[in-house]
Structure formats: structure tokens, C-alpha cells
Design a protein that fits this description.
It contains 5 helices and 4 strands. It is an alpha+beta fold. The chain has 3 domains: about 60 residues, no CATH class; about 50 residues, no CATH class; about 50 residues, no CATH class. The strands form 2 sheets. It has a two-stranded antiparallel sheet. A two-stranded antiparallel ribbon has the order 3-4. A hairpin with a 6-residue loop joins β3 and β4. The longest helix has 23 residues. It is extended, with a radius of gyration of 22 Å.
């Protein structure tokens, strides 16, 4: 319920400001709603150009997302698959839940695959604050050099990961 309402609200804000061609997104969904980060992503940012036709025309396409067979959600499905053949474990509370506890339910796939997302963000923010407080005016040049070299290395690693 909260995710659908949030997505609808983001779409409404984008529409109010005449922003079209965007996909709504929210991050940190396994944490409290007040910590969610909401945004709009240009659809063009989700595309890549591939030759899709037999005539060689290049067309922008949004690539399919494949199921990672090593993700916790799939491994959970795999471990319970036989049990679910014989028992009804379906748990969809329905389209709208305003009052009962199911309005706070988090999708199991999100919970299993991204349960540490908010914790990791907070750790990164804490490290950045520590670096920022250590590397203030008056810090020794060796300290600043070590911070720059370390951050450059992290930036290179993240760049490589982003490409894949």
C-alpha cells in the first residue's frame, strides 16, 4: 500500500511540474517510509541502443532484468518450492489495505534481496562524515594525500562495477 501510494505521489508531482518521459523510483524500501528516497528517472537513462531488427536498424530498448539465481529471494523460492506445491502459502493482502497490519508489509523479494540497503547507506554516510571531519583545514598533507588516494581507488572500483 505504501509503495503504491508513494509511486502515485511521485508521478503526481512529476505531472504537476509538466515532467514527462520519466519513470518513478524509490530507494530504501526495506526501511521506514520517512527514510525512503524518491525520484524520477528519465526513461532514456534506462535504455541502450541495440540492433533489434533484421534490417539492421538501431533502436533504443530497455534491457530485460534477469533473475539472479544466487539472490536470496530466488534461493528462498528454491528451498520452499516443493512445500508450496502442496500447501497454499500465497500471501497477497489485496489491492488496498488502509487499517490492518498488512498495510506495513514489505514485499518478500525486497526484504530478502535488499534488507541491508539502509544500513549500508548509513555506514557510507558515517565514513564520509569521518573523512570530512578529519580532512579539514589544518590537516597534515599526508592525511589529505592518503584520503585522496583512497577515495580515487574507491571511485575507480565503483566505476568498474557501474560498467557491469
Amino acid at each position: 500500500m505504501q509503495l503504491a501510494t508513494t509511486y502515485g505521489f511521485i508521478a503526481g508531482v512529476l505531472s504537476q511540474y509538466n515532467v514527462s518521459g520519466y519513470c518513478v523510483t524509490a530507494r530504501g524500501l526495506t526501511g521506514p517510509v520517512e527514510d525512503w528516497k524518491c525520484a524520477g528517472i528519465p526513461l532514456i537513462a534506462l535504455t541502450s541502443v541495440k540492433g533489434k531488427s533484421q534490417y539492421g536498424e538501431n533502436r533504443p530498448v530497455i534491457s530485460s532484468a534477469y533473475v539472479d539465481l544466487n539472490e536470496p529471494a530466488f534461493l528462498e523460492l528454491k528451498s520452499r518450492r516443493k512445500e508450496w506445491v502442496f500447501e497454499n502459502k500465497y500471501c497477497n493482502p489485496g489491492p488496498i489495505q488502509f487499517f490492518n497490519k498488512s498495510k506495513l508489509d514489505i514485499n518478500l523479494s525486497l526484504k530478502l534481496n535488499h534488507e541491508n540497503y539502509n544500513l549500508l547507506l548509513r555506514k557510507i554516510e558515517a565514513y564520509c562524515e569521518k573523512i570530512k571531519s578529519t580532512c579539514r583545514f589544518g590537516a597534515h598533507e599526508d592525511t589529505l594525500s592518503a584520503a585522496v588516494y583512497g577515495l580515487e581507488a574507491i571511485n575507480k572500483i565503483l566505476g568498474i562495477i557501474k560498467k557491469h
